[in-house]
């Protein structure tokens, strides 16, 4: 019986965590928006976001720019397969 309760509690915690991660990702995208005048990222924001979240800069970048993670994975897979050096 306690296994069922523990499993249910774990599932609820995972749902809450995923929801919180989605909110953090939305906030990061807003915080890391490009400057409307220059079109460039605001200087120092990635590092500051990494400090605030406790994540590394790479995770912050990949969270704010989802396509970046996919491009890096594809590039890494190409190198592992012996292509693109």
Oligomer: single chain
The helical percent reads over 70%
Give the class from helix and strand content and strand pairing. Answer: mainly alpha
Morphology call: flat
Question: Mean of residue pLDDT?
Answer: 87
Cα separation of the termini:
55 Å
Number of distinct beta strands: 0
Order of helices and strands: HHHH
Structure in words:
By secondary structure, this protein is mainly alpha-helical. The chain is built from four helices and no strands. The chain has helices at 2-31, 45-53, 57-64, 66-80. The N and C termini lie far apart (55 Å). 6% of the residues are buried.
Question: What attributes characterize this protein structure?
Answer:
0% strand; 85 residues; mainly alpha
Topology readout:
Elements: H1 2-31, H2 45-53, H3 57-64, H4 66-80
Helix pairs in contact: 2-3, 3-4
Give a quick rundown of the structure.
The chain is mostly helical and 85 residues long. Helix content is 73%, strand content 0%.
């Amino acid at each position: 019986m306690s296994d069922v309760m523990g499993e249910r509690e774990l599932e609820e915690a995972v749902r809450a965590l995923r929801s919180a991660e989605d909110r953090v990702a939305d906030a990061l995208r807003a915080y890391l928006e490009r400057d409307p005048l220059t079109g460039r990222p605001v200087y120092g924001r990635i590092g500051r976001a990494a400090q605030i979240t406790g994540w590394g800069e790479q995770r912050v970048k990949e969270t704010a720019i989802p396509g970046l993670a996919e491009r890096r994975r594809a590039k890494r897979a190409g190198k592992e397969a012996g292509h693109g050096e």
